[in-house]
Design brief:
heterodimer, A: 459 residues, alpha/beta, Rossmann fold, six-stranded parallel beta sheet, B: Rossmann fold, six-stranded mixed beta sheet, four-stranded parallel beta sheet, 19 helices, 15% strand
C-alpha cells in the first residue's frame, strides 16, 4: 500500500535543497539529441552557463550552448536585438543544421514572443526553411523533466510533416544514459526493427576520442527521420508518468493517427517484457534467442540475489519516469520501496505508484514535488538503508548515513554517469547487482561488530 | 570535416590581443555578446560565490528553483564550525507567484526557515524575475528582520543587471550592511588584519592563517572563507586589509578604507614567489623587527622544504606550454609566475572578469606572442590553444572536457577543487597536479592512435 501524496499543488513555502532543476535544462538535453543542433537559451548569461556546467560535469563532454545574454536594456525594451545577434553568431561559428531555442523565467516574464522573433529573423536573413525549434520553458513552469518532454513535443510539432506511411517505429525516450540509449538500439537491431529513436544523444553527449576535434559532434536523430515520424508504424513512448499536454507520442497519435504505446522505461523483467512484447505486437517479429537468454540470465541472477535484496529498504528519487521503473524493479526483487520521491510536478506518477504498491503490506511514503530535506526526513522515519538516484542524494549519505547508488542525471561527483547501463534484461541485471552489492557491502561492514555487541557476554 | 575554418565574431575582436603584435589595448569589463557562448555566469553567481562561505548564514534564493538547484553545495569552501551554508534554500517561485508576486511567499519562507534553523543572519538573493515582477525585497527583508530580531539582508543579484562582477559588487554591498558597526564596536581598533578574497577552498585560508600566526600577525576575520556572523561583525576593528581575490573584493576594500579608515594591500598566495613576497609585505606593514625576522625564518624554511620537491617536477616539465583561462585576474597573474617556477611558459591567457589594470600586469609578464583574451568562448579557446600548441589548460569545470577532447592536459583551478593550491603546500600540490596530468601515460595511447598502430582491421 502507499501513503499517497495528496498534495497536488505547491505546498511549501520554501524548498530546502532541490531535487529537481528547471525547465530549460530539460529542453537543452532533448535538443542535444538532434543531429547537428545548437541550442540558444533566451535569458541572462548565467542560465546557459549553469546548465552547461551541470551537463558537462555529468557527461564529461564539451557542452556549447548559446545565450542571448539579456542585459538590463534587453529586459526593459525587449530582447529581440540580442536574440538576433545570438542567431547570427551561433550560425557563423557552429554552422548548425537546426537551432533549438528555449526560454527562461526572464524571457517569459517580460513576454518575449520567440516564435515571431525567430520567423522574422529567418525572413530578414533569407533563411526561410531553416529550422529554428522554439519552446517556451520558463523556470517557474515546471522541472527539467517537464521541460524535456515539452521541448521534445515542440521538436516533433515543428518538424514532423504529413507523410506517407513507413515501416518505422517511433521510439520516444526520456532522459537516460547514453549507454542505455545504445542498449535500446542494440535490442532494436537484434529484433531487426526499423525505428526512429528521438532524441538520440548517445553519441552527441558521449563521443569517442577523435582527431581532429570538431565543434559539432556526429550523431543525433536526423532531421529527415523526425520529419517522417508522422508516417510511423507506431510510437513507443517511454513516458507513462507524463501528462498528455506534454506528450510527444500523444501529439503524433492525434495529429497523424500514429498508434501510441506508452510504456515504462524497460528496467526490470516486467517492463522489459512489455517493451519486447510491444515490439512483437506491432511488427509480429520473433524475439531472438540471445534476448531470451539474456532474460533467462536475469531471472537466474534475481534468484541468486533475492535473499540479500530482502533486507533492502530503499529511497528512490529523481525524474518520475526513472523513479517509476526503478520502483517496479525493486518490487520485483523484494527490495521494499520505503520512500519514493520526485522533485517534479504531479504527472501520473502518483496514481501509477499507488496501483503498483497495492499488494504490498507496508506503507510506502510517496513524495511528489519534494526536496531533499523532506526525502531525508521520510527516509529516517522509514528506516531506509539504501538510496538510489542522482548525485545530489549524497546529502542522504552525509546526513543520514544512507549509502547512495548513483543513477540518473546529474551525476557530478563520480565519473561514468554516461556509461551506467540499466535498461533491458542485461542492464537490469547490472542495476540489480549495484543494489545488491551495496546492501552486501553495508552488511559486511558491520555484522561482526553488531553481532558481537548484540550477543557476546563475558562469562 | 576538420574545423580549420574558424569564423571569428567581429564583436570579439577588441577582446583578443597578441602581445608584441597588436598595439591596441585589450577591451574588458563589457557585457558578454549574445551567441558567443561566453563561459561567464551571472550576477547571482558572483554574489553567491562571495557570500556563500559565510558558514552560519541562511542563504535563501528568491526565485524559481533553478538558481538554487545549480548552486547547491557545489563549491569547496570548508568550515570549522557551522554547516548551515551548505544548504540551498529557495522560495521556488511558480507561475502563480510570478503573476501575483512572490512577496508573501518570501515572508513565509523566512518564517519557516527560522522555525527550523537557528540563525542570526539571512541573505536573500534576488534572481532575474524578482527584478521584473517588482517584489520589494528591501521592505520584506526589513519587516522580517524586525519580526525575528535577526539580520535579513537583501542581495541585489538579478542576473540581467550586469555580469559576474556586478555580483561581486552586490555581495560587497550586502557585506557592508552586515559589518556596519553598532556604537560599541566602532571605537576599538586592534592591531589585526582582515584577509579579503579567500574562500577557504580545501582549507586554503587555514594554511594562510597558520603562516600569519607563526609570524605573530593577529587575524581579525577572513572574507569570507570559514567566516561567520560574529566574526564579520567585528571587521571594522582591523588595522589593515589584505586582498587576494581583487576582482571580488577591491570594491569592498575601497569602501572599508573610506568608511573605517582601513588601508589595504594586495597580496597573493599562489606560488612560492608570490607567497613569499606577500608574507614580506604583510610583515612590513604590520610588525616590527621581530615579526620580520620570524617571517624570513618561515619563508626560508618553507622555501627550502618545497623547492627540492618542485625542482624534481621542474625537470620533468620544463619546456611545456600552458594555456590559462580562469575567473579572475589575480589568479591569472599568479599562475604566470607559478608556471615559471616549474619551467613552463604561458602561451595563451584569459579571464572571465579581469580588470584593466590586471590585464596590464598580465601583458607585462608574458612573452611576446602570447595571446591574451577577455571573456573567451570555447571556439576561441580551441583555436588559440591549437595554434599556440599548448600542452595543458588551466580552467574550470566547463573548460575541462574541451581540453580533454583536444587530447590536452588540464588543471582544475575552480571553486570545486578538493586540494589546496595556496601557500607553500599549495605550490607543491600545483606542481604535482601539473605533473600528474602532463606526464600521464594516457597520452601515449593517443599517440598510438595517431600513428594508426593501435587497432587494425578496417581492411
Amino acid at each position: 500500500m502507499a501513503k499517497k501524496d495528496e498534495r497536488t499543488v505547491n505546498y511549501r513555502d520554501v524548498n530546502e535543497n532541490p531535487c529537481n532543476m528547471c525547465m530549460p535544462m530539460g529542453g537543452i538535453l532533448a535538443l542535444k539529441g538532434i543531429e547537428k543542433s545548437m541550442v540558444i537559451v533566451h535569458g541572462s548569461q548565467g542560465c546557459s552557463t549553469y546548465m552547461r556546467r551541470h551537463i558537462a560535469e555529468h557527461f564529461n563532454e564539451p557542452v556549447d550552448v548559446g545565450s542571448s545574454s539579456l542585459n538590463e536594456k534587453g529586459t526593459v525594451y525587449g530582447g529581440e536585438k540580442n536574440l538576433r545577434l545570438a542567431f547570427d553568431n551561433i550560425i557563423k561559428v557552429y554552422h548548425p543544421e537546426v537551432i533549438g531555442l528555449v526560454t527562461t523565467c526572464l524571457a517569459e516574464t517580460i513576454g518575449e514572443d520567440i516564435e515571431r522573433i525567430a520567423s522574422q529573423y529567418l525572413l530578414d536573413r533569407g533563411l526561410e526553411g531553416f529550422p529554428i525549434i522554439t519552446a517556451s520553458t520558463p523556470g517557474y513552469g515546471g522541472s527539467h523533466f517537464e521541460g524535456y518532454f515539452f521541448t521534445l513535443k515542440r521538436v516533433i510539432m515543428q518538424l514532423a510533416q504529413p507523410t506517407e506511411k513507413n515501416n518505422k517505429i517511433n521510439i520516444i525516450i526520456p532522459n537516460m544514459s547514453p549507454a542505455d540509449i545504445r542498449e535500446l538500439k542494440r535490442i532494436l537491431a537484434e529484433m531487426k526493427i526499423e525505428y526512429v529513436l528521438c532524441p538520440d544523444f548517445s553519441d552527441t553527449l558521449d563521443r569517442p576520442f577523435e582527431r581532429p576535434y570538431t565543434k559539432m559532434s556526429d550523431g543525433g536523430t536526423k532531421l529527415s527521420n523526425i520529419k517522417e515520424m508522422g508516417g510511423g508504424l507506431a510510437t513507443i513512448q517511454m513516458g507513462v508518468t507524463i501528462d498528455d499536454n506534454i506528450s510527444p507520442g500523444k501529439y503524433l497519435e492525434e495529429e497523424f493517427g500514429v498508434p501510441l504505446y506508452n510504456i515504462p522505461i524497460p528496467i526490470g523483467v516486467e517492463n522489459t517484457d512489455t517493451f519486447l512484447n510491444t515490439l512483437v505486437k506491432i511488427t509480429s517479429k520473433a524475439i531472438p534467442d540471445n534476448l531470451k537468454n539474456e532474460r533467462g540470465r536475469l531471472l537466474d541472477g534475481m534468484i541468486d540475489s533475492h535473499k540479500y535484496n530482502f533486507s533492502g529498504r530503499i529511497a528512490i528519487f529523481g525524474e518520475p519516469e526513472m523513479v517509476y521503473a526503478v520502483t517496479k524493479t525493486c518490487l520485483e526483487n523484494g527490495v521494499f520501496p520505503a520512500v519514493i520521491a520526485t522533485g517534479s510536478q504531479v504527472g501520473k506518477l502518483n496514481e501509477l505508484l499507488v496501483a503498483a504498491l497495492d499488494d504490498i503490506s507496508e506503507n510506502s511514503d510517496i513524495l511528489i514535488e519534494t526536496d531533499f530535506a523532506h526525502i531525508l526526513a521520510a527516509s529516517q522515519q522509514a528506516k531506509v538503508n539504501i538510496a538510489i538516484g542522482p548525485s545530489d542524494g549524497r546529502y542522504l549519505t552525509e546526513k543520514g548515513e544512507i549509502p547512495l547508488i548513483r543513477l540518473g542525471f546529474p551525476i557530478h561527483d563520480r565519473v561514468g554517469g554516461q556509461r551506467l547501463l540499466s535498461v533491458g534484461y542485461t542492464g537490469t541485471m547490472m542495476l540489480l547487482d549495484r543494489i545488491t552489492n551495496t546492501l552486501l557491502e553495508n552488511k559486511y561492514k558491520s555484522y561482526r561488530s553488531s553481532m558481537y555487541e548484540k550477543f557476546y557476554k563475558k562469562a | 570535416m576538420a574545423d580549420s575554418n574558424i569564423n571569428t565574431i567581429a564583436e570579439r575582436d577588441g577582446f583578443i590581443v597578441t602581445k608584441g603584435k597588436n598595439k591596441k589595448q585589450l577591451q574588458c569589463s563589457a557585457d558578454s555578446s549574445a551567441g558567443c557562448v561566453s563561459q561567464r555566469a551571472c550576477v547571482y553567481c558572483g554574489a553567491r560565490v562571495v557570500l556563500n562561505p559565510i558558514t552560519d548564514a541562511i542563504h535563501l534564493v528568491h526565485g524559481p528553483i533553478g538558481c538554487a538547484s545549480y548552486t547547491w553545495d557545489i563549491r569547496g569552501s570548508l568550515s570549522s564550525g557551522a554547516e548551515l551554508y551548505r544548504n540551498s534554500f529557495s522560495t521556488d517561485l511558480k507561475e502563480r507567484d510570478v503573476i501575483f508576486g512572490g512577496a508573501q511567499k518570501l515572508t513565509d519562507a523566512i518564517d519557516s526557515l527560522l522555525e527550523k534553523y537557528q540563525a542570526k543572519l539571512i541573505f536573500v538573493y534576488s534572481t532575474c524575475i524578482v527584478g521584473v515582477i517588482g517584489d520589494d525585497l528591501e521592505a520584506i527583508c526589513k519587516a522580517a528582520s524586525q519580526k525575528h530580531n535577526i539580520e535579513v539582508i537583501p542581495v541585489e543579484s538579478s542576473g540581467f543587471i550586469g555580469n559576474k562582477s556586478a555580483g561581486y559588487r552586490a555581495a560587497a554591498e550586502a557585506l557592508l550592511r552586515l559589518i556596519k558597526p553598532t556604537k560599541s564596536v566602532a571605537a576599538t581598533k586592534t592591531n589585526s588584519i582582515n584577509y579579503l578574497g579567500d574562500f577557504n577552498l580545501a582549507g586554503e585560508a587555514w594554511i594562510i592563517h597558520n603562516y600569519l600566526r607563526e609570524m605573530g600577525v593577529e587575524i581579525n576575520v577572513t572574507f569570507t572563507g570559514d567566516s561567520d556572523y560574529e566574526a564579520l561583525k567585528l571587521a571594522p576593528k582591523a588595522k589593515l586589509n589584505m586582498i587576494q581575490c581583487a576582482g571580488s573584493m577591491i570594491y569592498l576594500a575601497g569602501k572599508m578604507e573610506e568608511l573605517y579608515g582601513i588601508p589595504y594591500i594586495q597580496i597573493s598566495f599562489l606560488g612560492i614567489e608570490d607567497t613569499a613576497a606577500s608574507l614580506r609585505t604583510i610583515a612590513a606593514a604590520m610588525g616590527d623587527e621581530s615579526m620580520i625576522r620570524k617571517t624570513e625564518e618561515l619563508i626560508a624554511r618553507e622555501t627550502a622544504r618545497v623547492e627540492a620537491i618542485i625542482k624534481g617536477y621542474r625537470e620533468k616539465l620544463a619546456g611545456k606550454k600552458a594555456a590559462i583561462y580562469v575567473g579572475g585576474g589575480f589568479k591569472a597573474i599568479s599562475l604566470i609566475k607559478q608556471f615559471r617556477e616549474i619551467g613552463i611558459d604561458v602561451v595563451m591567457i584569459g579571464t572571465q572578469t579581469g580588470r584593466q589594470e590586471e590585464y596590464d600586469t598580465i601583458n607585462n609578464l608574458v612573452d611576446n606572442g602570447t595571446v591574451i583574451l577577455d571573456d573567451a568562448n570555447p571556439a576561441e579557446l580551441e583555436k588559440f590553444m591549437m595554434e599556440k600548441d599548448a600542452n595543458l589548460l588551466v580552467g574550470g569545470v566547463k573548460e575541462r572536457p574541451l581540453a580533454y577532447k583536444l587530447g590536452m592536459a588540464f588543471i582544475d583551478h575552480n571553486h570545486d577543487r578538493k586540494h589546496p593550491l595556496s601557500g607553500f603546500e599549495g605550490a607543491v600540490n600545483f606542481a604535482e597536479e601539473v605533473y600528474s596530468t602532463v606526464c600521464s601515460p594516457v597520452w601515449k595511447s593517443l599517440m598510438n592512435m595517431d600513428t594508426q598502430s593501435g587497432v587494425k582491421g578496417d581492411g
